[in-house]
Amino acid sequence: MIALFRTLIFAPLAILTTLIASVLVLLTAIFPMRVRFAIIRVWYTVVLGLCKTVLGLRYRLLGREHIPSGACVVLAKHESAWETIALQQIFPPVVFVLKKSLLNIPILGWAFIAVRMISIDRKAGRDALRQVAEQGQKRLAEGISVAIFPEGTRTLPGEIRRFKPGGAYLAVSTGAVAVPVAHNAGDFWSKRFAKRAGEIIVSVGPPIDPKGKTAEEVNRLAEAWVSEEMQRIAPYRNH
């Protein structure tokens, strides 16, 4: 009951904050990207602050020393909307690889375009890999990290899905290191409306240097690390 009450307060505040930030991003689209990322920085700071103060939901970051100083390819688990917010604070500046249909959402989708998120058609097969490589190379060259959810879709806590090769392919084709990320956000921020209070654990793994490796090897190393780390940070799950 308390979780529902807290969420009823949090949800409209988070939506309003996101709407304001999206409009500001659109209004500053003619200015350099750093202006839009400054707005995004304020947005995620406010929303994560609301998570902490209103929801009672905070996070602890492990492996901070593994975060590269330059742009990288982030290969993270995907269990909720929460990590799409938090990863922007952990790996700034960063853009996400997302499905093309999200760009059609009024205001929010337009803001995605303004910050140059990487959009792909999931049904395009190998063409989707090319889309990720082409757009991702440009972002990385600009010093912007690229976050990809290699499982391809949101998973339930404890659910195991094989990693898709798009992120690893981007790392190999550009020479950027791939950084695996494990977390247990789904235990607190599920598909249910009410969000649970507690502490989300986010663990950043050692960067994987793609030099001399195939995309399959990079993908396999990232998947193995995330799988093993999930057993360590969420041993209560039925892995």
TrEMBL record:
SMART domains: PlsC (SM00563). CDD domains: LPLAT_AGPAT-like. SUPFAM superfamilies: Glycerol-3-phosphate (1)-acyltransferase (SSF69593). Pathway: Lipid metabolism. Keywords: Acyltransferase, Membrane, Transferase, Transmembrane, Transmembrane helix. Pfam families: Acyltransferase. Residues 72-186 form the Phospholipid/glycerol acyltransferase domain. The chain crosses the membrane at residues 7-31, 37-57. One of its GO terms (molecular function) is acyltransferase activity. InterPro entries: Plipid/glycerol_acylTrfase. This is Lysophospholipid acyltransferase family protein. It comes from Dentiradicibacter hellwigii.
